[in-house]
Amino acid sequence: MRSDDTIFAIASGQGRSAVCLIRISGTESRSILEMMAGKVPDPRRAVVRTLREPATGDPLDQALVLWMPGPQSFTGEDQAELHIHGGLATRAAVLRVLGSLENCRPAEAGEFTRRAFLNGRMDLSQVEGLADIIDAETEAQRRQAMLQLGGRLGDASEGWRERILQVLALLEASLDFSDEGDVPEGLEADILKAIASVHEEIRKALANRSGERLREGLTVVLAGPPNAGKSTLLNALAQRDVAIVSPVAGTTRDLIEVHCDLGGLPVIIVDTAGLRESGDLIEQEGVSRARARAQDADLVLWLVPPEGEETQAPSARRVLRIGTKADLNQNRRDCDLMISAASGEGLRELIGRLEVEAGTLMGQGDAIVTRERHRRALERAQSSLERAHAMLAGRGPLELAAEEARLAARAIGEITGRVDVEDVLDRLFSSFCIGK
Ligand SMILES: Nc1nc2c(ncn2[C@@H]2O[C@H](COP(=O)(O)OP(=O)(O)OP(=O)(O)O)[C@@H](O)[C@H]2O)c(=O)[nH]1
Ligand SMILES: [K+]
Ligand SMILES: [Mg+2]
Fold it and tell me: So where does Mg(2+) get bound (predicted)?
């Protein structure tokens, strides 16, 4: 793979469609347009052209063609777009011609965005925001991703990094100019204050975990004894027939997950095997999976049926007791809510409760930290800031305090990619789809 190749890819999804968008980026973009579409149109003006096979002049398709010269393009390079008809044969013919041209090859996953990053068109946190926009399934996820693409995390972390670099500059100046290797009196207090204030802002950002939850979705596990009505409730919430329902106790064995949109918030609802002692090996495995999933869940709905003896709810972060089959028996031991999937009673209230729970745990996209990667970088920065602070306050060696400040700035720099981060890049871009 050469980074100076001209790359091309379908950007509009696979399979037959009305229109298919082919993106081209790199130095050959202009000559490709000349060869296939005749005259190059004015920059950023869509024109209709007949695309032709360069060798024979045979027509390939009628297309809408765009010319977007760098550096004012998405990738920062010369780019062209061909909006062709989306028939499978038309796609194949145009891709075949592009692939046969010299220095021109299909793009790798995420390569357009990688070039945009390398050409300084966006920082790494914005790249992640872009990936999140493409993956966003709910309104709140979309909003959070837009804020990140707009640079909210990038701006915050660049601000912190700048302030740490100022601290570093002061420390190095002290190292150069003081004989005792000491920071001058008044300056030391200023430096300590600056470190403490950056540390406090990062601490607040880390304390808010709603950003990561919003990206990943809130997990709600349906648990209870066999025949409590778990699968029936899952089907009612999903509004389709996802899980098998039957009067046979022990029907569900595997975990069944459904992604729902509750008031714009992403919630993953998990149906599980009924909890009971069982001699059946497969059911035992189902029960242990159910317990494990309940333990990791953000919320467990513990379903209590009218019949049968009371079973112990699994240990979980948060549990709501839901009495099921309210149509059969209204008298139930202390439940948070009564529902009947048969009559529909209580379902609307339950969904309301779930929306409130989700809203409390996920906020409405006010978090800055949205990924484990950001969290780890900021935590490393925090440790370095704490060590730098302790060393200065305890009159430890200035060189070491300066080194810790440098490490803190570096850790924060990884968020936007303002430092050397090849390994981070490979992991990130390989998760992108081709054509992005
Ligand atoms: N009357 C009434 N019956 C219900 C209701 N909800 C579920 N049932 C019945 O209860 C039985 C068990 O329902 P399931 O949804 O399979 O129960 P489950 O908890 O998934 O059971 P397992 O997967 O075996 O643990 C089925 O016969 C359902 O039709 C309800 O609200 N009212
Ligand atoms: K059942
Ligand atoms: Mg079931």
Answer: 231, 252
143 burial type by CB count under 10 A (0-12 exposed, 13-18 middle, 19+ buried): middle
Using the mean position of ligand 1's atoms as its centre, give its distance from the Cα of residue 227 in Å: 5
Closest ligand 1 atom, residue 232 Cα = 15
- What's the average model confidence in pLDDT over 47-60? 96
Is the domain of 49 the same as that of 153? no
Q: For residue 421, what pLDDT is reported?
A: 44
Q: Ligand 1 pocket, 230 CB below 6 A?
A: yes
Residue 118 lies in a domain: yes
Main-chain dihedrals φ then ψ at residue 48, nearest 5 degrees: -90, 130
How far away, in angstroms, is 247 Cα from ligand 1 center? 6
Q: Please state the length of the chain.
A: 436
Structural domain span for residue 328: 223-362
Cα radius of gyration (the chain):
29
Distance between Cα 236 and ligand 1 center (Å) = 12
Q: Which of 221, 230, 231, 232 to mutate to test the pocket of ligand 1 (most atoms within 8 A of CB)?
A: 232
- Is the ipTM beyond the 0.90 threshold? yes
151 and 90 co-located in one domain = no
